[in-house]
């Protein structure tokens, strides 16, 4: 009897130990990745100087290396529209850092201007020039054609002008002319849309146009209220899909949809809208966050709204079960700018998991994104409420 009871107790303890071990293993498996991948989230959300400076210095090193390469007669390190995006987002990110940490402005403001100037290089917009049959939009500012892709260097120039006291006068004159052209074109558009390619308008690019106009106003004191109000009204009336709250990815200038409402375009539009119209940016962010999918403390953004589907492309990146890593990264900006700490933390965990941050000396980079990914993340991780007016 005693032996049988002892055997039963031993068997119970053994089963109990196995159950406890399994529970502990599951708890560790669930909690350890979210802790590890989220360990820097709060520092980024708060704008911790040491955390922010690591990625900022990485982008300064990129611009320095690019300058040395060019001085030696080398070709572009990052080509075409990817080069345009890399220099533009570097300028935006370092300008945002300068605004949030004024003590660093002397170091970063000149780099902002250098990056903004490089975003004007003709070879970086060659794809757009080719689509317009060799016509360079920067050379024909009197044209009624949209050339909305020029919003990217225009916004970079505006941020440089905002933070750099030594911004060159000849660049200021060129910037003024570009903004006047965009203001005239946007006010003349009944849909609030401007073509990026002939017959093809992207609401995200037009949001960048509005951002460039708004930042020009902040830098120069020029009143652009009327054009910003017109743009915002048409975004709400024409460009947002009412069922999903997402902007339509591609449209004709007449307001007809050429694509589905999608999260990647909405996320980037929400970031740009934050420079121009805070209320509209929050509306776009709300539609974007409705696409948020959560698992074990991680969040990611579903690219297509309900009732729509499609493949990934250069805007969304490859889709994994419908999830867009690009849209997930874009969502960091409105999450921080509008005070959504928990959303920011969940999104950052996913960014950390797939981005693989690496530290080397005083610099930090995300290994899987390359130069463009790091430039984008600097801009989105430092987007702040002072930009969303």
Q: For the residues shown, what is the average pLDDT?
A: 90
Low-confidence stretches: 20-30
Strand content: 5-15%
Going across the biggest sheet, name each strand in turn.
Answer: 3-4-6-5
Number of helices: 15
Q: Rg, please?
A: 24 Å
The helix fraction, in percent, is 55-70%
Oligomer state equals: single chain
What's the CATH architecture? Alpha/alpha barrel
Q: Kindly provide the name of the CATH class.
A: Mainly Alpha
> In whole angstroms, how far apart are the ends?
80 Å
Largest sheet: 4 strands, antiparallel
Find the structural class using helix and strand composition: alpha+beta
Q: What is the string of SSEs from the N terminus onward?
A: HHHHHHHHEEHHHHEEEEHHEEH
Strand runs, count: 8
Shape: globular
CATH fold title: Glycosyltransferase
- Count of individual domains: 1
Give an overview of the whole structure:
60% of the residues lie in helices and 7% in strands. It has 389 residues and is α+β, with helices and mostly antiparallel strands. It has a single domain (53-381), classed as Glycosyltransferase, CATH 1.50.10. The strands form three sheets. Strands 3-4-6-5 form a four-stranded antiparallel sheet. A two-stranded antiparallel sheet has the order 1-2. Helix 4 (80-100) packs antiparallel against helix 5 (105-118), helix 4 packs parallel to helix 7 and helix 8 (169-188) packs across helix 9. The chain is globular, with a radius of gyration of 24 Å. The chain starts with a helix and ends in an 8-residue tail after the last helix. The model is unreliable at 20-30 (pLDDT under 50).
């Amino acid at each position: 009897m005693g032996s049988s009871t002892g055997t039963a107790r031993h068997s119970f303890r053994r089963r109990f130990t196995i159950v406890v071990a399994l529970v502990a293993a599951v708890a560790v498996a669930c909690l350890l990745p979210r802790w590890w991948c989220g360990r820097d989230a709060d520092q980024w959300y708060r704008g911790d100087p040491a955390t922010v400076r690591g990625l900022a210095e990485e982008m300064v090193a990129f611009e320095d290396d690019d300058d040395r390469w060019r001085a030696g007669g080398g070709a572009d390190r990052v080509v075409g529209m990817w080069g345009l995006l890399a220099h533009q987002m570097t300028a935006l990110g370092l300008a945002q850092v300068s605004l949030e940490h004024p003590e660093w402005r002397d170091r970063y403001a000149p780099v902002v201007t250098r990056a903004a100037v490089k975003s004007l290089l003709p070879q970086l917009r060659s794809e757009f020039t080719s689509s317009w049959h060799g016509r360079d939009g920067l050379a024909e500012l009197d044209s009624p054609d949209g050339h909305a892709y020029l919003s990217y260097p225009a916004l970079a120039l505006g941020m440089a002008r905002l933070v750099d006291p030594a911004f060159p006068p000849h660049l200021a004159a060129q910037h003024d002319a570009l903004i006047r052209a965009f203001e005239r074109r946007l006010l003349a558009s009944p849909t609030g849309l401007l073509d990026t390619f002939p017959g093809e308008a992207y609401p995200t690019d037009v949001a960048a146009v509005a951002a460039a106009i708004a930042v020009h106003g902040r830098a120069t004191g020029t009143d652009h209220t009327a054009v910003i109000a017109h743009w915002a009204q048409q975004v709400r009336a024409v460009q947002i899909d009412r069922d999903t709250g997402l902007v339509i990815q591609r449209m004709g200038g007449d307001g007809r949809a050429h694509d589905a409402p999608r999260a990647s375009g909405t996320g980037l539009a929400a970031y740009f809208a934050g420079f121009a119209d805070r209320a509209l940016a929050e509306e776009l962010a709300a539609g974007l966050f409705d696409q948020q999918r959560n698992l074990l403390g991680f969040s990611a953004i579903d690219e297509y709204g309900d009732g729509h589907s499609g493949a990934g492309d250069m805007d969304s990146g490859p889709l994994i079960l419908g999830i867009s890593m690009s849209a997930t990264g874009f969502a960091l900006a409105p999450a921080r700018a509008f005070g959504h700490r928990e959303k920011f933390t969940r999104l950052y965990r996913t960014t950390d998991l797939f981005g693989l941050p690496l530290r080397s000396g005083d610099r930090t980079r995300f290994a899987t994104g390359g130069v463009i990914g790091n430039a984008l993340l600097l801009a989105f991780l430092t987007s702040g409420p002072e930009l969303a007016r």
